[in-house]
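Notes, Module 5: Reading structure tokens.

Key idea: the token line is not a picture. It is a compressed description, and you learn to read it the same way you learned to read a sequence, by spotting repeated patterns. We will look at two proteins. The first is printed below with its tokens.
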Amino acid sequence: MEPPLVSVVLPNRNHARYISRAIKALLGQTWPHLEILVVDDASTDDSREVVSQLFAGDARVQLLALDKHHGVSGAVQVGLTKARGEYIYIAAADDFVAPTFFERCVAEMTRFPTAGFCFSDPTEFREKDGQVVHFPLYLRDAPTYFDPEGLIALLCQNFFHMSANTGIYRLSAFRGAGGYIPELEWLSDWFVTIVIALRSGACYLPEQLTYVTMRDDSYSATNLCDTDKQRELVNRVVTLLSSPAYVDVAEPIHRAAILPEYHFRTLLWLLVTRQGRTFVSLRLVRRIAGRAIWSLLRPYAPIRMRRYIRKTAGVLAGSTKDEQS
């Protein structure tokens, strides 16, 4: 039996100065069974030339050049039509991964064939000073599989974010969840991750395997400042969760008080619509209030203190929950 193939979909728009680092990190994996689908989203810089010149001799790298701008989610969907692997990783042109990333994720997904997603601890690479900052989730001390009910119970007790960039999906689950839905724009990765995790469960690796480049002009940083657009996208999420295709995950999302953002404005957005009110709960109100207080204190809390608080939350939640490991 041949080892499973990992398909990497790497959307790119005008990131010529980063993309070679991202691709080299992918090609340097200890897991060699992969294909890298670089979807160039009508870049106006020399991104295509960089990819063609540096990686033309490696059959694992394919350049899919789009003539019109599709946006990140649309570009991912184009790559999804070409993906042949058992697993899929959605890469970012300005991020990079550790050499053992695929090997570790595939090993866990193989151990737990029902899992739809495998994620790890987030790590930031701060472009301004080159500093690397690791943010352990402290969910467990060893690799662990959480089935859907176990994951919901954990999320009820201990809020954490399963970052799409920190892991891989089972391709069948990714397609079944709709992939990156273009209408959700920058919330599409959050949505597909939550849907897959609540349907199939997820593996957690307490390891530092991926690096997100923190930039002031990044896609997420610039778009999250657009309050009107964010409100529109949150409403689209609520509408989707009320549709027949996703009604199975609406109840657990309500029960665990899971949202793409936690602000008092979000609560107001939910309260003004009938569909939105179905997701409001006492747990959600408490979570929003707690995160509001933490957002005021967080800038003054040293990294060590923040890690201690996160670890304490993880230990308290884990002490009362059963898991498979």
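Here is the second protein, with the sequence above and the tokens below, as before.
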Amino acid sequence: MDYVPNKNHEGFDELLRNKSYYYQNYIKSTPFFVQYMDYMQLNENALIVTREPLAGASLSNLARLLVQNRFKIDGRYLPRMLYATTISSLMTPLRIKEYLQFDKTIKKTEIPHHPIFILGHWRSGTTYLHNMLSLDTTLGYFSTFHASLPSVFLGSETLIKSFVASSLPKKRPMDDVPMGPALPQEDEFALAAVSPYSANHGLCFPSNAAYYNRFIFMDDVPQKILDEWKEIYRYLIQKETLYSQGRQLVLKNPANTARVKLILEMFPEAKFIHIYRNPYHVYQSMLKLLLSIVPYMCVQKPPNTAEVEQQVLHVYKRMYTKYLKERAHIPKENLVEVRYEEFIQQPLEQLNHIYTKLNLCGFEESEKKFADYIETQAKVKKQKYLSDESVKEKIYTDWKFAFEAFHYRK
């Protein structure tokens, strides 16, 4: 059986500190070996600064985040914080210019079509679905550029888009999916750039991850924060609607899976696409995601692997417990649920089903683009997952309700 590192292994953290011993005594070719090895390259990765998402934050938001974290920055990550502060400072004149030029117009912008929200836990196929829907020219979306620098994209896109492009890796570190400033992106990054109320900040400030994870669920935060969050989110959607010339937006944000009721308060006629995946695969893929990106984003000492595992288990359980309760509030004609495994096998047929169920226009006009994109994705490297029985038992025990709700076998 393939060896999968886990928190119960005696002396696991000590093994991680001794790469040579670990390499010689355990299977070298497993995906988990590779990702755990990557996670150990903390000192080597510390001087990589251009992937730091805090660089897109406003100075006022950076200040609030530093206060929330009591200015606790790990010494090895000071270059990242300096980089983020420098870029944010350089962008300040552009933010002021954009505010003066567009703020009144943004606030007056009507949202003629309530958005389409793509829901689903991270690593459940939300990106694949979002990328496909973005090919429909009747729909608008947050691009990576817009989500990274939401305060300047209306007035300064031509000026600084190439800068954002140069700072992006060609592919995401956790998989084989291309990255680019014009490609669709999670709007949570836009929220994080202008607000301190985002779980994304837990990637940068992992010592405070439990605090920031509260903003996934939004059920134990003061009303004042809820109101501020809703005001900021609506403003961003108005801004993207203005940019998209009134097109209906398709928004992909896994955190919204636990915010259905809150979103319906803002957009009662919103449409929802929920894509779900085998929980075993979500767990292992989510571990790989966090172990791949946290070393490039954090400005505090990253959590040990046992803490990452516990975080994955806790967030998934709480997210889907909440979603399964709140989806009942969505009108039946505004919700479609898609099984990831079926979507991967028959993407065009499943996409047609989505359009039909939600009464969306544009499928026939975009069908050729969809088919061409699907063909390109056939070349994307598929991830392999291990079958360690002790890990599977832990996942099933904690997430049994989700296996039953979405009809997956133990």
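Summary for the second protein:
- The CA atoms of residues 91 and 103 lie 17 Å apart.
- The chain has one domain: 75-405.
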